[in-house]
C-alpha cells in the first residue's frame, strides 16, 4: 500500500473535573469526552524519512518540525516496531489549533492508525492505545472516539453508550490558549482561594442525560473546572458564552482548555440558527455546527 488516509474527530469535554495537582505535574481528572463532527485527515505516504506538511484553514499555525504531534506519533510507532520506517504525513486541518478541541492529539492518533496500516504492522488497537497515552493525555480518546469517561490524567478510558445524537455549535476564537497555562491558572486561582480541592466525581445526572439522549438535561449538567481559568486568561469569552445562552443554547461552556466555546443546541436546525445568530451579532467571527458522538480515528 503506498498511501493511507485516516479521518479523526475533534472533541468537547461535557464534564471536566480537575483534581489536585499531582507530583508529576498532571492532574487527576474525571474527563467525559465526546467526539464531534469536525475532522482532520491524516494521509501517510511511503517515504524514506518521517516528514509532515499541513494544508487547510489553520495550516500556518501548525509546526512542521519535530514538534508536530503527528511526527512524534509516527516516530513512537516506528520505535515500538523496532525499525527505521519512513512516511510523508499530510495533515488536512479543520480542527482549530490550540482551541481546546484536541486537534494535535487527533493528528497523532491519525498518524498512528495510518502508519500502522502503511507499514503493514498490524498492531492491535490496545498497543496503539498504549503508545497514544505516552504521546498526550487526549490522544487515546482521539483513537477511540464516541463518548467516554477518562480518569487518571484522562488516558484511562471507559466507553459510554449514548441514547442519541447531540447537536452543537463551536464558536472559534482568535489565537489559541496553551493547555499547560490554563491548568497553571486553575492551580493559581485555587491557591488564592485556599479552598480544599475535592477528588473529582462523575456526575450521575450527566450520565443519565447522555444515556437517554436528553439534550435539555445534558445542557443543564455541562461542567468544566478549567472554565474559570480560561475566562481569567481570556475575559472576552464571558460575553461569547452569554450570547449563546441568549440565542437559546441549552448549555454554554468553554471546550476543554479553551478558547473555543461550545453551545448545545436542541436539534440540527437550532444549531444552524444559533451559529448564524452568533456570527451576525458579532459574538463570534466563526461558528461551526457539528454533531456527536462520532467515531474515533477511522481508515478511509
Ligand atoms: C484539557 C484537556 O484537553 C481535556 O481533555 C486535556 O486534559 C489536555 O490534554 P493534552 O492536551 O493531551 O495534554 P498533555 O499534552 O497530556 O499535557 C499538557 C499539559 O497540560 C497539563 N495537564 C494535562 C492533563 C492533565 N490531566 N493534567 C494536567 O495538568 C500539564 O501541565 C501538561 O504538561
Ligand atoms: N498536528 C498538530 N496540530 C495542531 N497543533 C500542533 C500539532 N502538533 C503540534 N502542535 C502544537 O500544539 C499546540 C496545541 O495544539 P492543539 O491544537 O493540540 O491544542 P488543543 O486543541 O488546545 O489541545 P487539547 O484540547 O488536547 O488541550 C499548538 O499550538 C501547536 O504548536
From TrEMBL:
Its EC number is 2.7.1.148. Keywords: ATP-binding, Isoprene biosynthesis, Kinase, Nucleotide-binding, Transferase. Residues 68-146 form the GHMP kinase N-terminal domain. Residues 206-282 form the GHMP kinase C-terminal domain. ATP binds at residues 96-106. It comes from the Bacteria. It catalyses: 4-CDP-2-C-methyl-D-erythritol + ATP = 4-CDP-2-C-methyl-D-erythritol 2-phosphate + ADP + H(+). Pfam families: GHMP_kinases_C, GHMP_kinases_N. One of its GO terms (biological process) is isopentenyl diphosphate biosynthetic process, methylerythritol 4-phosphate pathway. GO terms for molecular function: 4-(cytidine 5'-diphospho)-2-C-methyl-D-erythritol kinase activity; ATP binding. The keyword Kinase applies. The active site is at 11, 138. Pathway: Isoprenoid biosynthesis; isopentenyl diphosphate biosynthesis via DXP pathway; isopentenyl diphosphate from 1-deoxy-D-xylulose 5-phosphate: step 3/6. InterPro entries: GHMP_kinase_C_dom, GHMP_kinase_C_sf, GHMP_kinase_N_dom, IspE, Ribosomal_Su5_D2-typ_SF, Ribsml_uS5_D2-typ_fold_subgr. Catalyzes the phosphorylation of the position 2 hydroxy group of 4-diphosphocytidyl-2C-methyl-D-erythritol. Belongs to the GHMP kinase family. IspE subfamily. This is 4-diphosphocytidyl-2-C-methyl-D-erythritol kinase. It comes from Nonomuraea deserti. The lineage of its organism: Bacteria, Bacillati, Actinomycetota, Actinomycetes, Streptosporangiales.
